[in-house]
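Session log. Operator J.P. requested a structure for one protein chain; no other inputs attached. Running the standard single-chain path with token output.
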Amino acid sequence: MVSLVLTSSDIFRALFLALSVVWLLSDLAFAKHAGITRHYKFDIKMQSVTRLCQTKNIVTVNGQFPGPRIIAREGDRLLIKVVNHVKYNVTIHWHGIRQIRSGWADGPAYVTQCPIQTGQSYVYNFTLTGQRGTLFWHAHISWLRATLYGPIVILPKKHASYPFPHPYKEVPIVFGEWWKADTETIINQAMATGGAPNISDAFTINGLPGPSYNCSAKDTFKLKVKAGKNYLLRLVNAALNDELFFRVANHTLTVVEADAVYVKPFKTDIVLITPGQTTNVLLRAKSKTPSAKFAMSARPYATGPATFDNTTTIGILEYEKSASASKSNHKNLPLLKAKLPQFNDSSYAMKFQRKFRSLATAKFPAKVPKSVDRRFFFTVGLGILPCSKNQTCQGPNNTRPAAAVNNVSFVQPNIALLQAHFFNKSKGVYTTNFPTNPPFKFNYTGTPPKNIMLSSGTKLVALPFNISVELVMQDTSILGAESHPLHLHGFNFFVLGQGVGNFDPKKDPAKFNLVDPAERNTVGVPAGGWVAIRFLADNPGVWFMHCHLEVHTSWGLKMAWVVNDGKGRKQKLPPPPADLPKC
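Structure written below.
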């Protein structure tokens, strides 16, 4: 008879095995409802590209411009390996992806990661949780996103349908901005001299400027449609510094989604889209093939005092010819133009933004926080900063233009904020004393104060896990009132209300929409006005918030929120991946 003596390590092993089986079974049960894992490889490399009769070397993903489209389903996991073959430091941001407990994959340089250096690589690993629609990816360091960008298409889960008529075809329409000169040189020179960076030379639709520019008729995006069919246009504004009006001549569009959230459908001739925003629209082709081609035009909505690129990019909507139409007359069809609003039509902009409403149905609820734990009032706008002693700047008394939130112009640290936070090494990297309100009150949209000097620092707001936040963002008239598209990483927020002039804390909250407000990741703070948003701080990590006009980001119109861990396991940020780049 053999006596069986179990050591404590045997018991531990058996227990571990049993637990592993339980975990595996629960994981398999979960996998039945979860998505699949999709792998992408992004090789960052230089590519020679010709536009506007000039050839230049640009930074691309896989030699493509615009970059490759990412297609996945809600619930899928993405593993995207980014390999840097260029001389610049690189990071990629997956704009609008919630990144729930995956902040290490968010991408803004020196916020959630150190950049990927030349010859290095990093795998961005995240899951698409509770989101479906159009988003986009772009570089998130210096001005590299001028050419490093592409669409993200998140389809609904298998067998789930759209809450609008199923389109015959889906087409990404990605707006970009093109400079003849090298964009890194442009921003570096501007920062060195304290001047404003040079404006762009063209706008593009899917990388093509179109016939309104010199020798660019051959570089025109063409959309061929069939009479009577429905098309879903997935609009993305990947331009650096310009909000855009978009119109298809003689066609009405139906807006069905914004920032990857379904909205109550509404009809419009013109769409306004800020950098960082995405908008899905249905275009119904005419029932009979018309004897014309139609311009698809985009040009800026510009409110500030600075000069801007006032050109128009044009794509062409063409109908597939019917059997009866001969070849010759199809080629010579007239091109009908699209009339767009005035460049500074802020009342159109305000009216348009107010049309967005969440579906707020049982299937797609609007989970607006009904009570508020913490309130913030942020001024956003411009000012000046002194230049260093060895710098000669163009502003009065050796100053340069700068931008700030609550008078704090953000100073980028030289190690990533998320690492400093996670390893409790914030000392000397950042402080959590970001002001809740402006340091001094003034007539924000009236005559500016005499002293327009800003302060600077790496200041953050620390939030306990799962508290509700209400934030009012107020534009200022310092150096000119201007619309600022503010983007918040790691969250969607609800747009409760907006108005012209100074926010009135006594009267304006009574008008807030708490029933079906739009849910977005990027919102335009109106020129000379305010916008109020709410969000739930349910995602632990460090989350960047900044103006999506790249010139203002470079000037310091940015800050970050630290959301601390909650008590439960699923309320904590996991440790960083082993291949997280080092500074």
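Operator note: Helices lie at 8-33, 183-193, 327-331, 346-353, 417-422, 550-554.
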